[in-house]
Design goal:
Length: 335
């Protein structure tokens, strides 16, 4: 065989072996497998994590925006007045209509993301604004943010949910509950300077002539506070008849009060008319003050339909609801 032919055969055989190796075929027995060439590798560039979805609520580094007066949704307050005074009507503290109202308020708080508890309140029989009323159970509806610790500094914002038997209770006090719900709605999506407890109190209306013949729900709430929880309370605001008038009354049980002064200063900062109302003891803040706790009242402008069948939704002025809600929200804002 000539040299040229031997070379051609060798080339052909090499090609067959290469093709066999590439196609997964076996090598001829006895032929060494060449070592793979040395390859130098580097760690791949890390894949960057995706930016957190700002709407997902899962990014712990994102704090809610601070609340302020402009966060108030007035429609929440107005609709509450219409529903409580119009759809439900009179809400005597031990009656079936009060229970319906308490269920509705509890559902409203729950939809906003709050944790809701129902505090039973035993109420005696008596005479409420000239009408005999039976003994029976009532309740406070209490809303707190998830993780709330009552032993840490906090604020309370509340309003009574009940009415005297003969009144639909639009101004007294669906107006107060309406603003509480509107403020709670804003707080549920925002950040306040201190945690806020929202309370719809039962059995505020009188069942007799003396001091201990009303404010049953708020007195029950205060009685249930431990000494540590009392020490953690930095201020209580009761919203009672807040839908009539052109200025915001800020009531204190005595001549003046630090919480009252702070709310009045907040109103001035917003340019909202407000007036000091000293000697105010006719709302649920008094249950706190008489126990040595800081408390004030928002509201109390006189009006003709007080405690009567004429206290219907048309009595309530949305502009006044807005004034009160804006002052309260700004007061709650971080400073």
């Amino acid at each position: 065989m000539g040299r040229t032919r031997r070379i051609a055969i060798a080339i052909a055989l090499s090609a067959v072996l290469v093709l066999s190796a590439c196609s997964g075929g076996s090598r001829p027995e006895g032929r060494p497998v060449p070592a793979p060439p040395e390859v130098t590798t580097q760690d791949p560039e890390p894949t960057p994590a995706p930016d957190p979805d700002p709407t997902s609520g899962t990014d712990p580094s994102r704090d809610p925006e601070p609340v302020d007066a402009d966060d108030l949704d007035l429609d929440v307050a107005v609709e509450a007045v219409r529903h409580l005074a119009g759809t439900i009507g009179p809400r005597e503290a031990t009656g079936e209509s009060y229970a319906r109202a308490a269920d509705w308020v509890a559902r409203s708080f729950t939809r906003m993301g709050f944790e809701v508890t129902r505090q039973p309140v035993d109420v005696p029989a008596g005479v409420s604004w000239g009408v005999p009323v039976p003994a029976g159970p009532s309740e406070n509806v209490v809303a707190t943010s998830p993780g709330f610790d009552p032993a840490e500094p906090h604020l309370i914002v509340g309003a009574h949910l009940d009415t005297v038997p003969q009144a639909p209770g639009a101004e007294d006090n669906a107006s107060g509950i309406g603003v509480v719900l509107a403020v709670a709605d804003a707080v549920s999506a925002g950040r306040t300077r201190l945690p806020v407890v929202f309370v719809a109190f039962g059995a505020e209306e009188p069942r007799g002539m003396f001091d201990d013949d009303h404010h049953y729900g708020s007195r029950q709430y205060v009685a249930g506070l431990t000494s540590q929880q009392r020490g953690a309370l930095r201020g209580m605001v009761s919203l009672d008849r807040v839908g009539v008038g052109g200025a915001v009354p800020v009531g204190s049980a005595g001549d003046s009060d630090p919480v009252q002064a702070s709310l009045l200063a907040t109103a001035r900062r917003l340019g909202i008319p407000a007036v000091a109302d000293p000697g105010q003891r006719s709302s649920d803040h008094w249950s706190f003050v008489r126990a040595g706790l800081p408390g004030v009242r928002l509201g109390s402008t006189s009006y003709a339909a007080y405690h009567s069948a004429g206290d219907i939704a048309a009595v309530v002025q949305p502009a006044q609801l807005e004034r009160v809600g804006r002052v309260l929200l700004e007061w709650l804002a971080p400073r």
